[in-house]
Amino acid sequence: MAAPKMGDFEDLLPVMAEKLGGEGLIRELCNGFRLLMDGEKGVITLESLKRNAALLGLQELRDDELQSMLREGDLDGDGALNQMEFCVLMFRLSPDLMEESQFWLEQALEDVLRDG
């Protein structure tokens, strides 16, 4: 069976969020971060991502593709992903979860404006 390509990505975060709830989803994202991070540096580096890419079914990705993934989530420009950057990236890569988050944000804002 061939490993999935990036274009074949199946967005499982909404399903996980529904089954685990918000706290459970964050806990699982943190577990995923720990699997991919460099144990000594405490961040996901290109080297740690290459070393652990098979865990994600990404072993066929080239170095430049993995580097692009890092750049996409690297908010502070240090060339690596800390835990917060990784979680934000996972949410950004999940269009369905982002739509759901947008809905809950709009509901919260409406409640604040109505009650405020």
Structure description:
With 116 residues, this protein is mostly helical. It contains 5 helices and no strands. Helix 1 packs antiparallel against helix 4. The relative contact order is 0.14. Mean pLDDT is 78; it is low at 1-9.
Cα-atom radius of gyration: 16 Å
End-to-end separation in angstroms reads: 56 Å
The counted number of beta strands is 0
The SSE string, one letter per element, is HHHHH
Structural class: mainly alpha
Strand content: under 5%
* Poorly predicted regions: 1-9
Share of helix, binned: 55-70%
Shape: elongated
Main sheet overview: none
Task: Give the overall pLDDT as a whole number.
Answer: 78
**Count of helical regions:** 5
Report a brief summary of the structure.
The protein is an all-alpha fold and 116 residues long. The protein has five helices and no strands. Mean pLDDT is 78; it is low at 1-9.
Describe how the helices and strands are arranged.
Elements: H1 13-36, H2 46-52, H3 63-73, H4 83-92, H5 95-115
Helix pairs in contact: 1-4
Keywords:
mainly alpha, disordered N terminus
